[in-house]
Each structure stands twice: as C-alpha cells, then as structure tokens.
Amino acid sequence: MQHLQPHAVQSAFFRDRVALVTGGASGIGYAVAGKLVGLGAKVAIWDIQKERLDECQERYGDRVLTRSVNVSDKAAVSKAMDELTRAWGGVDHLLNNAGIIGQRMTVQDFDGDELDRVLAVNLKSMFYVSSAFIRASGAESSRSIVNLSSIAARTGGMVGNIAYATTKGAAASFTYALAKELAPHVRVNALAPGVINTEIQKDVFADPASIEAMANLIPLKRLGTAEEVADAAVWLLSDGAAYITGVVLDVSGGR
Ligand SMILES: NC(=O)c1ccc[n+]([C@@H]2O[C@H](COP(=O)([O-])OP(=O)(O)OC[C@H]3O[C@@H](n4cnc5c(N)ncnc54)[C@H](O)[C@@H]3O)[C@@H](O)[C@H]2O)c1
Q1: 1 lies in a domain?
Q2: Which residues form the pocket of ligand 1, taking CB atoms under 6 Å from any ligand atom?
Q3: 202-244 pLDDT tens trace
Q4: pLDDT by residue (tens digit) across 87-112?
Q5: 218: domain range?
Q6: Is residue 141 domain-resident?
Q7: Which positions fall inside the Ketoreductase domain (predicted)?
Q8: What are the residues whose beta carbons fall under 8 Å from the beta carbon of 103, sequence distance 6 or more?
Q9: Minimum-distance ligand 1 atom for the alpha carbon of 226
C-alpha cells in the first residue's frame, strides 16, 4: 500500500471542498484559510476588515471568495450564505472563528450595550452562521464545524473580560449540543486556545514584560501561534478526526 504523508492525506480530503471561515482576515482565521487553500480547498472568508479582505483576495485569487459580513447581523449572514451557495454550490466545512474581547467591564458596573455587542459577535453569530451553513450544506459526507471557544471558558479569563469568558463558555456548550443535533451527518468540535499571539491580544500584551510574565504561567513557557491553532482546526475539520465530535480541544501549551 502506498504510504501517504499527512499533508498528502489532507490534500486528498480537502481538494475542491468548500470551507467558510468567519473572521478570516486576520489571526487564527487567516492562518486556517491559508492552510485550507494550500490543501486545495475553496475558502469563503467573511470579516469586517475590508482592506484585509482585499489583500486575501489578491493573495489567493479565485481560491477564495471574500466578503464584508458582520456575523452578528442575522440578515447579512443569510444574504451572504445565499451568495456563497450561488457561487460555489454549497459549503462543506465551517470555522466559527470571528470574535472580540470587548471593552473592559465588571458585573458590578457593566455596560448593557457593550455586553450585547460581545454576546452578538461571539455567540449569537454562531447560531446565525451555523444555521445558514446547515441550510446551505448538501448531503456530502464528512461535513464538519469547528467553533472557537477559549480556555477562558474554564479559567474565567482575565479580570475585566467577564463578558468574553462567558461567551467562550457558551461556545463550548453550543458545541456539545450542536454535535448531538447534527449527528451523524455533521461533526461539530471546538478549540480552546490559550494565549495566542494575535491582534485580539495586542492591547493586553502591549508591553514585552507582560508577555514574559504570561509565558512563565504556561507550562510550555511561551505564547502559542495562530499557525499552531490552525493546524488543530484543520485536523478537526478533516476526516483525520472522523470519529471525533462534541469535543473541546485545548491548544494552550498546557495551561
Ligand atoms: N488569540 C488568543 O489568545 C485567543 C485565545 C482563545 C480564543 N481565541 C479566539 O479565536 C478567535 C480568533 O481570534 P484571533 O486571536 O485570531 O484574533 P483576531 O482579532 O486576529 O481575529 C478576529 C477576527 O474576527 C473579525 N471580526 C470581529 N468582529 C467581527 C464581526 N462582527 N463580523 C465578522 N468578523 C469579525 C476581526 O476583524 C478579525 O479579523 C476568536 O473567536 C477568539 O476569541 C483567541
């Protein structure tokens, strides 16, 4: 029997499959989109950063379909999914990745509008996009969803990010429940990254000393990279994880 390297196996799996990555214009989503394109998939990228979307389109050409979509807007999500289905016929894989930390808040003194915004972008979007995905995805086998939770779901995250941590806990619960709802046709898993060096963290870790202090709290003694989270996402989306559903996988350097 021919020996296939992991990359070759994944290329054979993803070739001409269609994936949708929300929040794919930067960080983890961008890394996942790039890896999927490299494996031969066609990737729809939804984000709100227009310039970065244009850069993605230029970089990957007709292998990607970029669109400015606010995933917390149900009508916009539905419209964008209709367009995507018309363009490429359906969607096989979904990465529910768009997210924000939101402004610092405590429960004692919270801002209701900001709370609604964080809930809408991080959590309600998962309902909107997953629902549209299910309607748009055909009867192909090996369909899959990966949601971005966080270790903040169990650690509570940093003080001041309680709205964020709450949505990430809900993303894990959403994953357990949706995995049951969609079995056996669609596998649904989540990733719980630890501290990953992307833009969402840029205010938190503006100072190199704070990066070092954080690294010391992580058993593997460093922050993670978007590429490392993307490798786990691509694996969970692929048939390499064919018997795994309803799982939240830490990618956290042991934290
Ligand atoms: N970086 C970390 O340490 C870390 C840790 C745990 C979980 N996560 C999760 O990983 C996911 C990706 O984060 P990242 O680290 O790559 O950060 P990032 O800021 O680089 O990427 C987030 C992307 O989401 C997009 N986005 C924000 N609001 C949107 C909206 N309303 N509609 C569409 N797109 C929107 C942003 O424009 C951005 O491109 C997030 O859900 C985040 O919570 C990140």
Answers
A1: no
A2: 22-23, 25-29, 46-49, 69-72, 97-100, 121, 148, 150, 193, 195-196, 198-201, 226
A3: 877 888 898 999 999 999 999 999 999 999 999 999 999 999 9
A4: 999 999 999 999 999 999 999 999 99
A5: 6-251
A6: yes
A7: 17-198
A8: 111, 114
A9: 16
